[in-house]
Amino acid sequence: MDSTATLYVVGNINVDLIMGTLDSWPQRGTEVMLNHSELRPGGSAGNCALALEAMKVRHRAVANQGDDGLSAWLASHFPHSAEHWKRYRCETSLTVGVTHSDHERSFLSNLGHIVRLTAADVLDQLPLRATEGDIVLLCGTFLCLHLYDEYPQLLSELQQRGYLTAVDTGWPPQGWTETVREQCARWLPLCDWLLLNEVETLGLVGQDDLATCAQQLTQQLSGRGGCVVKCGAQGAGCWQADQQISQLARPVTVVDTIGAGDSFNAGFLTALLHQQDITTALQWGIAVASLAISTLPRRYPDWHQLQLSAQER
Ligand SMILES: Nc1ncnc2c1ncn2[C@@H]1O[C@H](COP(=O)(O)OP(=O)(O)OP(=O)(O)O)[C@@H](O)[C@H]1O
Ligand SMILES: [Mg+2]
């Protein structure tokens, strides 16, 4: 399927070190040996870009990098994008994920390079004029501290350059405070597609009915897209001014849900890039996420499987 449009994925690309299994937190000053570890690229933008790379979707990962021993390793996973990343004199952003036998996980993250990414770094990596249909996805909103301060100016400039804009905020580490809500209200009118999960949707609005919250957010957006809510095993829904569409996910045997929402974003926005309708976009989002979370090593659908995912329903 041909499209000349590009999906630009902007935000947090970091190193994930997953280690387990740990069941009781170590006593201070002791050492514990764990039986499993895995080093891999991660972060919302990183997970989404890896899915797009595997699916051979026309895309670019727009980010920055640190300058320690991990930065070249991280960059090597994004061969067509990393040459454009600005290098900062700082450590690479790293998340250590500790797995527990009840499937819970605990995460420890440093600040690293992602907090230093600026709007200027992003805009320097994007064409001055968008090609028809180009989409810019901003993710890891509340972790990219510097960039987050510049969201209103950044989104406004993206609109002026002719890009469609999408935002997946993720969860704010400080919680959904009134300040966070007020800050979001400043850039929501410049956002075309808002991609959240269920609890983020409730948190951003501060009410407990999902449909009410999604409708309210839809009204705050630009009106050119809609509010997409990812609902885990339940699938996903999309709210627009004049319609609401939901699609169920099929049950799968989950191996690892890390990046489920980011993989969904890759499928959903790939469909929009190729002028598919909303129902198909939800189906592609679910198809990419379902396969990603149920395979080890992780796999993503090819074009043929994506078409089938829509026909099988
Ligand atoms: N347990 C599950 N069974 C089947 N599908 C799932 C399950 N969990 C997630 N998915 C699929 O992944 C998609 C996105 O997952 P989810 O709604 O959990 O997003 P998220 O909370 O943003 O994820 P993340 O943990 O990556 O932030 C869902 O719409 C669904 O298609
Ligand atoms: Mg998410």
List the helices and strands and how they pair.
Layout: E1 7-10, E2 14-20, E3 36-42, H1 44-54, E4 59-62, E5 64-65, H2 69-75, E6 86-87, E7 94-99, E8 105-109, H3 119-124, E9 135-139, H4 145-149, H5 151-160, E10 164-168, H6 178-187, E11 193-197, H7 198-205, H8 210-220, E12 226-230, E13 236-240, E14 243-247, H9 260-273, H10 278-294, H11 303-311
Parallel strand pairs: 1-4, 1-9, 2-7, 5-6, 9-10, 10-11, 11-12
Antiparallel strand pairs: 2-3, 7-8, 12-13, 13-14
Helix pairs in contact: 1-9, 7-8, 9-10, 10-11
Bound molecules: adenosine-5'-triphosphate (ATP) and magnesium ion.
Give descriptors for this structure.
313 residues, alpha/beta, UDP-N-acetylmuramoyl-L-alanine:D-glutamate ligase, eight-stranded mixed β-sheet, four-stranded mixed β-sheet, binds adenosine-5'-triphosphate, binds magnesium ion
Write up this protein.
The protein has 313 residues and is of the alpha/beta class. The chain has a single domain, classed as UDP-N-acetylmuramoyl-L-alanine:D-glutamate ligase (3-Layer(aba) Sandwich), CATH 3.40.1190.20. It is built from eleven helices and 14 strands. The strands form three sheets. Strands 4-1-9-10-11-12-13-14 form an eight-stranded mixed sheet, with helices on both faces. It has a four-stranded mixed sheet with strand order 3-2-7-8. A two-stranded parallel sheet has the order 5-6. A hairpin with a 5-residue loop joins strand 7 and strand 8. Helix 7 packs across helix 8 and helix 10 crosses helix 11. The longest helix is centred in the C-terminal third of the chain and has 17 residues. The two termini are 21 Å apart. The model has no long low-confidence stretch (mean pLDDT 96). Magnesium ion binds next to loops.
